[in-house]
C-alpha cells in the first residue's frame, strides 16, 4: 500500500536537498567559529549583571561578541589591541582577584578573558583540549575531540578589571 502513494522523484529530490544542505554546512566553516555560552553566567559583588550595564555598554558588548564569533578562539589568542592581547587563557584561577570560583563552574576548566576595552572584560572559561577524569557518557567518549574547543563559557561581566588585578606578563 505504501508503494501506491510513494513518489520516487520527490524522494530523490529531498535526498539531494539534504545532501546539498549538509555539504553547504560542512563547507561554511560553522564548526570553526567561536561560540559564546551564557549557561554559567553568574553575578558576584565584583561583577555586574546585564541590567547593571547601560544600553551603550550592552550594544558594545554584543558588537564585540559578534566580531569574536567570526574566527576560532585560537585566532584571538594572537590578536592585540595595542600591547594588550584580545583573548587570554590563564593557567589557573587568578590569585589576586575580587571574584570567587562559583560552585556551579566545573573543575578542570581553563579560566580566560576577552578584553572589551580599556577596563571592561568578559570573564569565563574554555574546555581544555585534554579533560582530566572526564566521565564517559552515552553518545560521548571521554576523548576531548568531541568537546567544542571553540566555546567560551561566560561567567562574569567585569566592568572594572577586578578579575585579574595584575595581568601576567
Summarize the structure.
The protein has 169 residues and is an alpha+beta fold.
Key traits:
single chain; 169 residues; alpha+beta; two-stranded antiparallel sheet; 4 helices; 7 strands; elongated
Task: Give the distance, in angstroms, between the N- and C-terminal Cα atoms.
Answer: 73 Å
Question: What amount of the residues lies in strands?
Answer: 15-25%
- Label the structural class: alpha+beta
Tell me, rounded to a whole number, the average pLDDT: 84
Explain this structure to me?
Helices cover 25% and strands 18% of the residues. The protein contains four helices and seven strands. The chain has a five-stranded mixed sheet with strand order 1-7-6-5-4, with no helix packed on it. Strand 2 and strand 3 form a beta hairpin. The protein is elongated, with a radius of gyration of 21 Å.
Amino acid at each position: 500500500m505504501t508503494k501506491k502513494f510513494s513518489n520516487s522523484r520527490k524522494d530523490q529530490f529531498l535526498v539531494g536537498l539534504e545532501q546539498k544542505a549538509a555539504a553547504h554546512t560542512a563547507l561554511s566553516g560553522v564548526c570553526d567559529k567561536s561560540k559564546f555560552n551564557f549557561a554559567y553566567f553568574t553575578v558576584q559583588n565584583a561583577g555586574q549583571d546585564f541590567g547593571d550595564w547601560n544600553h551603550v555598554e550592552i550594544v558594545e558588548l554584543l558588537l564585540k561578541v559578534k566580531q569574536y564569533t567570526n574566527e576560532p578562539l585560537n585566532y584571538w589568542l594572537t590578536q592585540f589591541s595595542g600591547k594588550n592581547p584580545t583573548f587570554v587563557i590563564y593557567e589557573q584561577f587568578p590569585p589576586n582577584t575580587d571574584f570567587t570560583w562559583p560552585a556551579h563552574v566545573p573543575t578542570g576548566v581553563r579560566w580566560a578573558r576577552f578584553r572589551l576595552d580599556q577596563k571592561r572584560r568578559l570573564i569565563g572559561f574554555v574546555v581544555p583540549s585534554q579533560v582530566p577524569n572526564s566521565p564517559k557518557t552515552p553518545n560521548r567518549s571521554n576523548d576531548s575531540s568531541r568537546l567544542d574547543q571553540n566555546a567560551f563559557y561566560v561567567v562574569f561581566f567585569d566592568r572594572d578589571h577586578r578579575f585579574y588585578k595584575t595581568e601576567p606578563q
